[in-house]
Design brief:
alpha/beta, 17 helices, six-stranded mixed β-sheet, about 20% strand, 13 strands, about 475 residues
C-alpha cells in the first residue's frame, strides 16, 4: 500500500470513517426497519415519513407447477423489455425477449402518452417478430406488466403511479393508472393483448425464484424477492392480519396473506438512523426526487458511482488530487469527473478489485473509461473511497433482509427449512464481494437467532419477466 502525504491521509481516513458502518449500528437499524414496516402496514396514507408497504394483490406464491404461454413487459430503468414466457410446469420455462433503450427525452416527456405509446409500439414490434400468429388467437394473450416504480395498487390489474424514481420524471403520469395507459395504447395499435396484472420487479423476483425453487432439493423456502441494481427494493409475503391498512373486502374469501412491496428505497427518508455525509447530501440535491428514497441513494447502482464522483471532485477542489492534470489541460477536468451521473457503478467494480502493482490495471480502466490519467497516489485514494462506499452499501443492504427475516420467522416456525432470498440486479449479481459482505452483515445481525436455520442468497434470473408471467397466470 502506498503511503499518502499526512494531510491527504487524514482527509481520506476521515471520509472512510464517515462511511464506516458498525455491527452495533446495523443491529439497531434492523429493529428500526421492523418498526417502520409496521407503521407502513397500518398507515393508509402515503407520506414521506413512511415506507410505502404496498399491498400487491398477489395472494399466493408459486410452487413450480404453473403452466402456459404469457407475455411480460418490463419497465424498470433505462431499458424496456418485452418477453414471452412458456411456463413448463416443472420449475422450468422457455423465454424469448427483446430489449429497447428508452430515449432520454421520453424519460422526461411532457405527456404520459409519449412514454406509453412508445411502450405499446415495442410490444407490437416484439409480437410481429416472435408471435406473428397472436393477432388471430381467439383469446388475447395475457400480459403481466412489470412496472418498477412506486404504485398505489388497488387490484392486481390497477395501480396509480405515486412518484417516479431512478431518473424518470413525467409529471403528467403521476396519479394515473399505468395499466389503463398501456392497455389504451395497445388498443390504438390493434394489438390483441390483455394487460391482466401489474407487478413490481421485486414481486417478479420473488415469484420467479419461488417457481424455480424446488424445496425438496434446496431444503429452503423462498421468503424475499429483492433487487440491488439501478435501484433497490424488496417484497415478501405477509399475513393478512398484519396488514391493518388493507380493506379486507377487496380480498377474496379464504385468502390468508398477500405479497407486500415494501419500497424500502424509502426507508428512513427523515434520516433518523441512516448515515448522512456531505456527499450524500450533494447527490440527493441533484436528483429529481430530493428527500425521497434516501436509503436507495446510499446503496444502488445509480448512486454509488455518483457518490464517488462527488467525493473525488471535493478532494480536487480542496487541492488534494488532479491538480497537475487540471493545469496540463489548461484549467479543466475530464467531463466524467465534472458532470453528474456519468461515473458508472460498473467502473467501481473494477476499481474495487484491482491488486496489481501500483494499481496499474485500475489506472488503465480510468484512462479508458473516464479519459482520466492518474498518479499512483490518486489511484490509491480512489480505491480507498470506492471500497468505503461499496462496503457501506453492502452493509446497509443487509438491514432490510435481516429485518424481514426477523418479522416473518414465526410464519415458518413449524417448518425446519432454511430461508432463501431471491435477488436480481447488476450490483448484487456482479459487484465483487457484494453478496459475501451482505451475508457477513446478516450474520452479525443474526435474525434467525434461536433456530438452526440458515439464510441463502439466490440469483433469480429473468426475475421480472418470469414473475410478471406468473402473476398473469393467476388470472
Ligand atoms: C426503485 C423503485 C422500485 C423498484 C426498485 C428496483 O426503488 O421505486 O419500485 O422495485 O427501484 O428496481
Amino acid at each position: 500500500m502506498s503511503t499518502l502525504p499526512s494531510k491527504l491521509e487524514a482527509v481520506v481516513s476521515d471520509i472512510e470513517q464517515q462511511f464506516l458502518i458498525t455491527d452495533d449500528f446495523i443491529i439497531k437499524a434492523t429493529d428500526y426497519f421492523v418498526e417502520s414496516m409496521e407503521k407502513g402496514l397500518s398507515s393508509p396514507k402515503q407520506t414521506r415519513e413512511h415506507m410505502p408497504m404496498i399491498p400487491t394483490f398477489v395472494t399466493s406464491i408459486p410452487n413450480g407447477k404453473e403452466k402456459g404461454l404469457f407475455l411480460a413487459a418490463d419497465l424498470g430503468g433505462t431499458n424496456f423489455r418485452v418477453c414471452s414466457i412458456d411456463l413448463k410446469g416443472d420449475h422450468t420455462f422457455e423465454l424469448k425477449q427483446s430489449k429497447y433503450k428508452i430515449p432520454n427525452d421520453i424519460m422526461k416527456a411532457q405527456e404520459a402518452e409519449e412514454l406509453f405509446s412508445y411502450l405499446a409500439k415495442k410490444v407490437k414490434a416484439f409480437l410481429d417478430e416472435h408471435h406473428q400468429d397472436s393477432s388471430s388467437h381467439e383469446n388475447p394473450l395475457k400480459l403481466g406488466f412489470t412496472f418498477s416504480f412506486p404504485v398505489d395498487q388497488t387490484a392486481l390489474n390497477r395501480g396509480t403511479l405515486i412518484r417516479w424514481t431512478k431518473g424518470f420524471s413525467i409529471d403528467d403520469a403521476v396519479g394515473k393508472d399505468v395499466v389503463e395507459l398501456l392497455q389504451a395504447n395497445l388498443v390504438i395499435l390493434g394489438v390483441n393483448v390483455d394487460v391482466v396484472a401489474l407487478a413490481n420487479d421485486t414481486v417478479g423476483t420473488l415469484l420467479s425464484r419461488a417457481y424455480a425453487n424446488n424445496p425438496d432439493e434446496t431444503n429452503a423456502n423462498t421468503i424475499i424477492g429483492c433487487i440491488f441494481g439501478t435501484g433497490t427494493n424488496g417484497t415478501y409475503y405477509e399475513a393478512l392480519d398484519n396488514i391493518p391498512k388493507l380493506d379486507k373486502d377487496q380480498v377474496p374469501k379464504g385468502v390468508k396473506g398477500m405479497v407486500i412491496n415494501t419500497e424500502w428505497g424509502s426507508f428512513d427518508n427523515t434520516l433518523k438512523v441512516l448515515p448522512n455525509t456531505k456527499y450524500d447530501e450533494i447527490v440527493d440535491k441533484q436528483t429529481a426526487n430530493p428527500g425521497y428514497h434516501l436509503f436507495e441513494k446510499r446503496i444502488s447502482g445509480m448512486f454509488i458511482g455518483e457518490i464517488l464522483r462527488v467525493a473525488l471532485y471535493d478532494l480536487f477542489e480542496q487541492g488534494f488530487i488532479f491538480q497537475d492534470l487540471y493545469k496540463q489541460r489548461g484549467g479543466s477536468l475530464p467531463h466524467r469527473i465534472t458532470e453528474p451521473w456519468l461515473l458508472d457503478a460498473e467502473i467501481l467494480s473494477y476499481i474495487e478489485i484491482d491488486d496489481s502493482t501500483d494499481l496499474k490495471m485500475l489506472g488503465l480502466v480510468l484512462q479508458n473509461n473516464l479519459r482520466l490519467p492518474t498518479t499512483s497516489q490518486e489511484r490509491h485514494v480512489i480505491q480507498r473511497l470506492t471500497r468505503a462506499i461499496s462496503r457501506r452499501a453492502a452493509y446497509l443492504s443487509a438491514i432490510p433482509l435481516a429485518a424481514i427475516t426477523k418479522k416473518v420467522k414465526d410464519q415458518y416456525k413449524d417448518d425446519d427449512k432454511d430461508f432463501e432470498i431471491g435477488c436480481d440486479g447488476s450490483v448484487v449479481e456482479f459487484y465483487p464481494n457484494f453478496q459475501e459482505t451482505i451475508l457477513q452483515a446478516i450474520a452479525a445481525i443474526d435474525p434467525l437467532k434461536g433456530t438452526n436455520k440458515k439464510i441463502h442468497l439466490k440469483i433469480a434470473k429473468d426475475g421480472s419477466g418470469v414473475g410478471a408471467a406468473l402473476c398473469a397466470s393467476t388470472v
